[in-house]
Amino acid sequence: MTIQYLPPKKISSFYPPQRTLMGPGPSEIAPRVLAAMSLPCIGYLDPVFVDMMDELKMLLRYAFQTDNALTFPASGPGSVGMEMCFVNMVNPGDKVIVCRNGVFGGRMIENVTRCGGTPVVVEDTWGEPVDPQKLEDALKQNPDTKVVAFVHAETSTGCMSDAKTLVEIAHRYGALTIVDAVTQLGGSPLYVDEWDIDAIYSGSQKCLSCTPGLSPVSYNQRVVDLVKQRRTPSQSWFMDLDLVLGYWGSTNRTYHHTAPINGLFALHESLVLLREEGLENAWARHTRHYLALKAGLEAMGLTYLVKEEYRLPQLNAVRVPEGVDEAKVRKTLLSEFNLEIGAGLGPLAGKIWRFGLMGYSAKSENVMLCLSALGSVLMDMGYPIKVGVAEAAAHQSYAEQHAQAAKKIKGS
Asked: For the chain, which residues make up each domain, given as ranges?
């Protein structure tokens, strides 16, 4: 006899609401990417799929601005990309300098510890970039450092560090580098080869406007040589680059794991969209909408956590005004306007909101909806805002940017 364990309510097909996603991720998925996800599933060793894998690697090299042969999407979110770097590059007993200026630097420290390495932490204030002098001082004090790890674009604060300078310092002292670019890729300038980055990882769900669950990674030849010289296997079977390369790195591919096939269809399409738009145009688009959002938020009297020269255009960390219930604002925006924004993490919990302008979410209609909805909610809570001021400031920003662009074109 079969016993049916029934839930207390009837369960039917799930249909999510249509949200405007302006938090720290995921971003809204582009329609062409959604369509690609719905294509028929095929085998992970199908010759047609293998051809698409080669295209994916070429497209990712363009996005990362690298010629690294070992560039591919790892099966898993950005956290898997992070862990793949550490489990392959850190041996037990290795000394690793980790620069922490937010949540995700902290996760790097955890990875070092789990790999049996010895973390040396360079601390900077949340909302400020990694201090290159602090890194150099730490390397002088720890000349046996094997790896330097840092977050280029810290998602928890919206702060961008100087990756080129930090990598140059690390190499000067003989250390390899691991760089977190989860919120960076496709949203603002990133030059893996020009900056000589050794290992880098990102995520599919932010500025690439793809489904969550994939982590683009890229490793240069120094990392490949390091992995080949390992005396003991990586502690992770799934993320062992020697094994993964049998599937992603060779022409005669061998089974490693069942790839997220339809997710890879989606990533392929998102990267085609990026190529069609052009990297520099995509970077400029994120900046254009950031400037309009910034104008509107500042017209409301709101202020940013991060100094302007270090801000990520795709992740805006804004201080919560005194006396405002930040959680209630987010809840009301979601329930009344179907608009999602992010909260602060760690010591910034309750102190900031995080407004994402990533990928397909970086568009003028989202900027204007956000300003209008936020202004409405804050006014209802008694915060002094004049109706339409924020929207007018954003429109003025767009107009000024358009005029500047037209003048530049005319001058050329």
From this structure: 31-275, 278-411
354 annotated binding-site participant: yes
Give the Cβ contact number of residue 252 at 10 Å. Answer: 6
* Cβ contact 196:168 at 8 Å: yes
User: Using CB atoms within 10 A of its CB, is residue 31 exposed (0-12), middle (13-18) or buried (19+)?
Assistant: exposed
Residue type at position 213: G
pLDDT in tens, 333-386: 999 999 999 999 999 999 999 999 999 999 999 999 999 999 999 999 999 988
Distance CA 299, CA 301 (A): 5
How far is residue 166's CA from residue 300's CA, in Å, rounded to a whole number?
36
- Of 162, 197, 178, the C-alpha closest to 108 is 178
| 150-161 confidence digits (pLDDT tens) | 999 999 999 999
Backbone phi, psi, residue 401, to 5°: -65, -40
Report the alpha-carbon distance of residue 259 to residue 11 in Å, rounded.
Answer: 29
CATH of 31-275, one of 3.30.565.10, 3.30.360.10, 3.40.640.10, 3.30.160.20: 3.40.640.10
For 317, the token pair is 């960390």
CATH code that applies to domain 278-411: 3.90.1150.10
Burial of 85 (0-12, 13-18, 19+ CB in 10 A): buried
**Continuous segment of H or E residues that includes residue 57:** helix 47-64
DSSP string of 15-33, one letter each residue: -----EE-SSSPPPPPHHH
Nearest CA to 121 among 85, 158, 148, 156?
Answer: 148
Contacts of 78 (CB under 8 A, 6+ apart): 180, 182, 201, 202, 203, 215
User: Could you read off the pLDDT of 13-58 as tens digits, one per residue?
Assistant: 999 999 999 999 999 999 999 999 999 999 888 889 989 999 999 9
User: Looking at residue 355, what DSSP letter applies?
Assistant: E
> Matching CATH topology for 31-275 and 278-411?
no
What is the Cβ-side half-sphere exposure of residue 258, based on CA atoms within 13 angstroms?
Answer: 4
Closest C-alpha among 170, 407, 393, 402 to residue 295: 393
Side chain identity at residue 46, one-letter code: D
